[in-house]
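Budget justification aside, the reviewers requested a transparent look at the raw inputs and outputs of the sequence design task funded under Objective 1. We therefore reproduce one unedited record. The lines immediately below are the C-alpha cells for a 207-residue chain.
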C-alpha cells in the first residue's frame, strides 16, 4: 500500500487499540483474518508492529504512573472467574434472541450464498465480535457492572452482520413464503429485547 494509506491504517488501528481495554485484540483479528484469507502476515506486520510497540510503551508509562497495566483503571479483571464471563456472554446472546449470531454463521456456511469479498467482510466482523467482545468478557471474568458494558461496543457490528445475512438468506429463497417468513422472524428478533424490557418495566410499575 502507498505510504500515506499505510500510515493512516496504522494510526486508525492504534486509536482503536487505545479506545478500550480490549482494543488490542483488534490487532489479533487483523492477523487472523489475513491468515484465514490465505495471505502472508508480512503486510500485517508493517502496521501491527508500530501499533504493538506504541501500545507497549503506553502500558509501561501507565504502570509507572498508575501502577496498573490496564488502559482503563476503572476496569476490574478477574480471570479466575471465567465461568461468570461465559455466563455474561451467553446471557447477552440469549437477550438478542440468538438469530443475530445464527444468521451470519449460516451465511458463511452455505456455498454460493455470498461472494468471496462479502464472506471475508462478514467473517472479519464476526471475528471482531467473537474476539474483542466475547473472548475478552470471558477471559476477564466478566464485568462487575450490569448492562453488558464489555459487549455493547461491538453491537453495531452485530446489527450489520444480522441485517446483511438476513437479506442474503431471504433473497436466496425460491418460495415467496419463506422469504417473507425470514424477514418477519428477523424483525421479531430485532424487536424482542426492547419488547421484553418494555413489558418488564410495565410489570414493575403495576406492582
Amino acid at each position: 500500500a502507498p505510504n500515506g494509506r499505510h500510515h493512516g491504517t496504522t494510526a486508525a488501528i492504534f486509536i482503536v487499540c487505545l479506545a478500550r481495554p480490549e482494543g488490542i485484540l483488534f490487532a489479533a483479528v487483523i492477523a487472523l483474518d489475513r491468515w484465514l484469507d490465505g495471505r502472508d502476515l508480512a503486510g500485517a506486520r508493517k502496521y501491527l508492529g508500530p501499533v504493538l510497540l506504541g501500545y507497549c510503551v503506553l502500558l509501561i508509562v501507565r504502570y509507572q504512573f498508575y501502577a496498573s497495566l490496564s488502559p482503563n483503571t476503572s476496569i476490574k479483571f478477574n480471570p479466575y472467574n471465567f465461568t461468570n464471563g461465559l455466563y455474561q456472554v451467553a446471557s447477552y446472546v440469549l437477550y438478542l434472541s440468538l438469530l443475530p449470531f445464527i444468521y451470519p454463521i449460516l451465511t458463511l456456511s452455505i456455498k454460493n450464498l455470498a461472494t468471496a469479498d462479502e464472506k471475508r467482510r462478514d467473517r472479519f466482523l464476526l471475528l471482531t465480535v467473537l474476539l474483542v467482545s466475547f473472548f475478552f468478557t470471558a477471559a476477564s471474568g466478566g464485568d462487575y457492572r450490569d448492562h453488558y458494558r464489555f459487549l455493547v461496543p461491538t453491537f453495531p457490528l452485530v446489527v450489520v452482520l444480522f441485517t446483511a445475512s438476513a437479506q442474503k438468506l431471504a433473497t436466496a429463497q425460491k418460495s415467496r413464503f419463506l422469504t417473507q417468513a425470514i424477514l418477519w422472524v428477523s424483525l421479531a428478533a430485532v424487536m424482542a429485547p426492547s419488547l421484553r424490557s418494555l413489558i418488564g418495566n410495565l410489570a414493575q410499575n403495576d406492582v
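The mean pLDDT is 80. The chain is about 75% helix and 0% strand. Computational costs for records of this kind are itemized in the attached budget.
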